[in-house]
Amino acid sequence: MSAAPVLPKLVGERVKRREDPRLVQGHGTYVDDVKIFGLRHAAFKRSDVAHGRIRSIDTGAAEAMDGVEAVFTGTQIAEFLDPMPIGTPFPSPEHRAVATDVVRYVGEPVAVVVAADRYTARDAADAIVVDYETRPAVVNPEVAMTGHPTVIHADFDNNLAVPLVPSGTGVSPDGKTVDDSVVDKAFADADVVVSQRMVNQRLAPTAMEPRGVVAHYERGKGTMTVWSSTQNPHILRTFVAKLNGMGEDEVRAIAPEVGGGFGAKINIYGEEYVVSALSKRLGLPLKWTEDRSEAFLATIHGRDIIGYVDIAATRAGKVLGLKLRLIADVGAYNMLLTAAIPTLTMLMANATYDIPAIRTTLTEVFTNKTPTDAYRGAGRPEATYFVERGMDMLARRLDMDPAELRRRNFIPADRFPYKTQMGAVYDSGDYAKALDRALGNAGWQELQRERDAARAEGRLVGLGLAMYVEVCGLGPSASLPTGGWEHSQVTVERDGRISATTGASPHGQGNETTFAQMLADQFGVPFEHVRIHHGDTGVVKQGIGTFGSRSQAVGGTALHLAGAKVREKMAKFAAALLEAHEEDLVFEDGRISVQGSPDTGKSFAEVAAYAYVPVPLPAGLSPGLSEEAFFEPANNTYPFGCHISMVEIDRDTGELALLRLVAVDDAGNLINPLIVEGQIHGGLAQGIGQAMIEEVRYGGDGQPLTGSFMDYAIPRAADLPRFELDATVTPTPVNPLGAKGVGEAGTLGSTPCIVSAAVDALSGFGVTHVDMMLRPEKLWQIIHGGQA
Amino acid sequence: MAQVSITVNGRRRTAEVEPRLLLVHFLREHLDLTGTHVGCDTSQCGACTVLVDGRSAKSCTIFAVQADGSEVTTIEGLAKGDDLHPLQDGFWEEHGLQCGYCTPGMIMSSVNLLEDNPSPTEAQIREGLDGNFCRCTGYQHIVNAVQNAAARRSS
Ligand code: FES
Ligand code: FES
């Protein structure tokens, strides 16, 4: 007789995704696929000037159109809609969802149309005529800081959104007292100092699904359902309820299938407030879907920060001190987290190094551009870029192998938890191990020989290397105004199947799969018997959402804890049925039985059925198998890794080709390596895109120059090489899973390692730094500068 | 208004439409075939790709009236009952999608690609998908998916 087949353990396996069968057949429901009887369509009229006062708005022609239900100007909307809420403690100028008086960037809404269909809505929006008294615009933050030629918000002198904030060595926790003596001494003692101004350019997050919202206020019930392409339906619910004067119990927010977010769909946008408010006011279901050309103007941008980097070191390559002066261009307004993002750049200035003296300062500046906010990596790629490019320049100055310079400065593996000069406590790390693995996988020395041989033939080949460490698994609550926990409820149903909810709100991350893997293992049941519900506040009682690489580390832990509670209770029911001690029970292969004697056990479904009809009810137990857990992490996690690239620049065209990209990433324990690889691939592509081809540009008058895919490039398949991935595993002690998070990792090391490789390739021309993006004409000019 | 008659996934559909109605909106809003997506307004992202008379085409770039009399296949028409098309299986098997928004278009373009070249090299796949953007995957698993499907088809 053969033993019953044992269900394989799934955590750590490359399990195919549950989400995919519906998505590959076109059966997913994204927000624009939502249809409701009586649905109307909204379209926004947007400012086409970068800065100006609205003299008049003529909505007559629009209102007269067949099929137009209503037209509202900003002033009319302001009568029933308060200004937009901000999620950071920084003072912020008033920001109306639809401008009432002054417009401050191209794309700012000035009126909204409600019509029977989307074509009519658009026609009507186009028919609105706005007369502006234009004002001078400013797009360069270092100019804007002088207060000339214009002041964008009356109460913010010199356009300073956040006046200089210091941080690091010798700065008191409240930032009020600053002692520069340690940092000054580090620089005085140094043999070498490298200094460079670097620009981390403005980017468009560009999820393939633009934003969209459907709101349905039901008059009879006094309740509202809002479908939105969002990363965090619970936060959306909170703010939409608040601005509509409703209770959180009266609003249900649904994130249906969401076609990518990359940070841009964390925000609660003006369109979400206006569409929900108009649905309530008109008593009609209402939809708005963003066009791509609208998205380039109206969805937040990312990065856009200047760093003045100074690194002081000894001749032997020991870094003594770092100064990082940051100027962030936040665009025209503060959005939900705008002001907080650059503070993460300060926080991560210590990078992977044991630097004893650091001074960072941050100034945030308003300009006449689209507001910035979180874009994949959100503050950490910027820190990584500035420090890693600085380290590369230092290695070049000292004529030292860039890998060797890193090694001499790493925080040693035995120093964790490690408190940085910036106040972060790195949970765990082994940076030398990741570096060594990457060097080995790349064949670093062989590559150096190849590069030198290619150079001898006159080819412009270069190598780059970057280390990174990022802060992930956001919370705890002290660091997030929305709360930094996550929530889950796990239910064993009467038939023994498992339903679980998670406050994480996946939009490509595959949590329906990874979380089902975890519960299948925890309960010893088939993967197919577990279903994960998410993205609907009517089903998922509480939650924060998906950002900051937190789904697994925070959401996964909440799920694990809720599962453990249910399992414990179920064991008590099983113990009563089996007349055994609950400590002796094993959950395996769809059965609960006494360890060592599987034949004596009961099927999982039998025990579940008993728990719901508990006759007799075991002493001390209540019926049912459904438990919830909130998990509040005590600290963040700090994943890390090493990325290496090889590039070649065409001497005749200046075109940069990425030949190799070798990555070693350490995200702690992994639930599903297949999904993790996918996350890293996507992050790498975005990091490479920043280095090579992506940049949001504005003319001096504030007119956007990159308003469509005609002008803003994102990587295509042929732009990228086959990535070479590997992982080291350093679990975090911060959560019981040992998982650190991996959603953003790919964007960190790839960008600086490619720029460093390009600089290496161009070193023969006396180049020590090139700002991104590395477009061909820029490189061509470096190559041909003398002769051009 | 103009009358169009288009055979979509094997079914003949006739409707009165505005002459300016895009084929993608005809599919999505008149026929409720929402598997075909819209990712841009400049004919670049490929999220809207369908087959028109067997060749891949960007349905945001064709008026419904231009497709009058054509045979259109959308992502919903690719599987045979419960049997997924080899490319659908390939994308599932190789984790060729994350958010899934680009996926229908990516698969429809790949159908055309494999019709023209049943065993493409990696470089040919990357070139062949030049008109389809994906922001999630970095394309590597998409390349694997197309290779997987090519192998399935030839076996
Ligand atoms: S929607 Fe058709 S190409 Fe983008
Ligand atoms: S899977 Fe999200 S855009 Fe391709």
What does this structure look like?
Chain A has 788 residues and is an alpha+beta fold. Chain A has 3 domains: 20-27 and 476-631, 2-Layer Sandwich (Aldehyde Oxidoreductase, domain 4), CATH 3.30.365.10; 34-135 and 208-260 and 265-298, Aldehyde Oxidoreductase, domain 3 (Alpha-Beta Complex), CATH 3.90.1170; 302-472 and 636-783, 2-Layer Sandwich (Aldehyde Oxidoreductase, domain 4). In chain A, strands 3-5-1-12-9-10-11 form a 7-stranded mixed beta sheet, with helices on both faces. In chain A, helix 10 (341-347) runs parallel beside helix 11, helix 13 (431-442) crosses helix 14 (444-456) and helix 15 packs parallel to helix 16 (551-578). Chain A is globular, with a radius of gyration of 28 Å. Mean pLDDT of chain A is 96; it is low at 1-5. The longest helix of chain B has 15 residues, at 140-154. Chain B has helices at 23-30, 86-93, 103-116, 122-128, 140-154; strands at residues 2-8, 11-17, 49-52, 55-58, 71-73. Chain B is built from 5 helices and 5 strands. Chain B is of the alpha+beta class and 155 residues long. The chains are: A alpha+beta (788), B alpha+beta (155). At the A-B interface, helix 1 and helix 18 of A face helix 2, helix 3, helix 4 and helix 5 of B. The structure holds FE2/S2 (inorganic) cluster (2 copies). One FE2/S2 (inorganic) cluster is lined by residues 38-40, 43-48, 58, 60 of chain B. The site of one FE2/S2 (inorganic) cluster has 11 residues of chain B, from loops.
